[in-house]
Specification:
Blueprint: E1 2-11, E2 17-26, E3 31-35, H1 42-50, E4 55-64, E5 67-68, H2 74-80, E6 82-84, E7 92-96, H3 97-111, H4 119-132, H5 137-140, E8 143-144, H6 150-164, E9 168-172, H7 180-193, E10 199-203, H8 209-212, E11 217-222, E12 225-230, H9 232-241
Parallel strand pairs: 3-10, 3-11, 6-9, 9-10
Antiparallel strand pairs: 1-2, 1-4, 4-5, 7-8, 11-12
Helix pairs in contact: 2-3, 3-6, 6-7
The chain binds adenosine-5'-diphosphate and magnesium ion (MG).
Length: about 250
C-alpha cells in the first residue's frame, strides 16, 4: 500500500535535512508503530507523507498503491485514501462537527465523480460511528474544536477517521497530554477501524498505547533514520531500556 524508499526531506526555508533516508513498507491489514526520541523526525515523516508544503523531498520516493504521490497536493493524497490526524487541530467557530465531516466526505466523493452522500445515509453513518466512540448527540452539533477538551479533540479526530474510512490512517500522537481516557478513545477507534484492507501508521511516545493496539511492526526513528525494526516486544524493550542503547 505505502512504500517509502530512501526518503530524504528538509525544511524548506532553512534547508536543514530532517529525514535522512527512510525506508518503510506498509501492506494492507498491517499496523505499524513508529517510536523514537523527541526531535527524531517522526512528525516530519507524517507531514511529508501527507504532503505538507513546509518540507521538501530532496531524494527518494513515496509510493501509494504503486504510484508516486510526491507531486500530489495534500487534498489529492487525502482523496486517494490517506488520512492524517493533526497534533494541533484548528478551531472553526460556526462549523459543527457534523457539518465539517459532511463537507470532507462530499469533497472526497466529488473527487471520485460521486454525488453528495444522501442525507439519510450520512445520518446512518454518523450514528454508527458516533455509537462506536460513545459520542453524544449534542457533541455533534458543537462548533469544531471550540472549547474542546483534550479528550473531545481526540474523539473528534478518531470520529473523522471512522467517517472518512481511509485506506491508510496516520495518527501522530503528541508527546504529552494523552490521558488514559484519550488513550482508550484512540485505541478503541483504531481497533474498530482496522480491517484486512486498510492500514494504520501510529506515531507515538506511549508504550502504553501499544497495550491496547497491537502493532505488527515497531520501528525506532532516530536522527531521521529508522534504526531498528521489530515486533511489539521491541516496544516493551524500549519502555524498559529507553532509546540510549540503540544510539551510539
Ligand atoms: N517547520 C519546521 N521548522 C523548523 N524546524 C522544524 C520544523 N519541523 C521540524 N523541525 C525540526 O526538525 C526536527 C524533527 O522534528 P519532529 O519531526 O517534530 O520530531 P518528532 O516528532 O520526532 O519529535 C526537530 O529538530 C524540529 O525542531
Ligand atoms: Mg512529533
Amino acid at each position: 500500500m505505502l512504500k517509502i524508499n530512501n526518503l530524504h526531506a528538509e525544511i524548506k526555508e532553512e534547508g536543514i535535512e530532517i529525514l535522512k533516508g527512510i525506508n518503510l513498507e506498509i501492506k494492507p491489514g498491517e499496523v505499524h508503530a513508529i517510536m523514537g526520541p523527541n526531535g527524531a523526525g517522526k512528525s516530519t515523516l507524517s507531514a511529508v507523507i501527507a504532503g505538507k508544503d513546509d518540507y521538501e523531498v530532496t531524494q527518494g520516493d513515496i509510493q501509494f498503491e504503486g504510484n508516486s504521490i510526491l507531486e500530489d497536493a495534500p487534498e489529492d493524497r487525502a482523496h486517494k485514501g490517506i488520512f492524517m490526524s493533526f497534533q494541533y487541530p484548528v478551531e472553526i467557530p460556526g462549523v459543527t462537527v457534523t457539518n465539517f465531516i459532511k463537507a470532507a466526505l462530499n469533497e472526497t466523493r466529488k473527487a471520485h465523480g460521486l454525488e453528495d452522500l444522501p442525507a439519510k445515509e450520512l445520518l446512518a453513518l454518523v450514528r454508527e460511528n458516533s455509537e462506536k466512540l460513545s459520542i453524544r448527540k449534542d457533541f455533534l452539533g458543537r462548533s469544531l474544536n471550540d472549547g474542546f477538551s483534550g479528550g473531545e479533540k481526540k474523539r473528534n479526530e478518531i470520529f473523522q477517521m471512522l467517517m472518512l474510512n481511509p485506506k491508510l490512517a496516520i495518527l501522530d500522537e503528541t508527546d504529552s497530554g494523552l490521558d488514559i481516557d484519550a488513550l482508550r478513545i484512540v485505541a478503541d477507534g483504531v481497533n474498530s477501524f482496522k480491517n484486512e484492507g486498510n492500514a494504520v501508521l501510529l506515531i507515538t511516545h506511549y508504550q502504553r498505547l501499544l497495550d491496547y493496539i497491537k502493532p505488527d511492526f515497531v520501528h525506532v526513528l532516530a536522527d531521521g533514520k529508522i534504526i531498528k525494526t521489530g515486533d511489539k516486544s521491541l516496544a516493551l524493550e524500549l519502555e524498559e531500556k529507553g532509546y540510549d542503547w540503540l544510539l551510539n
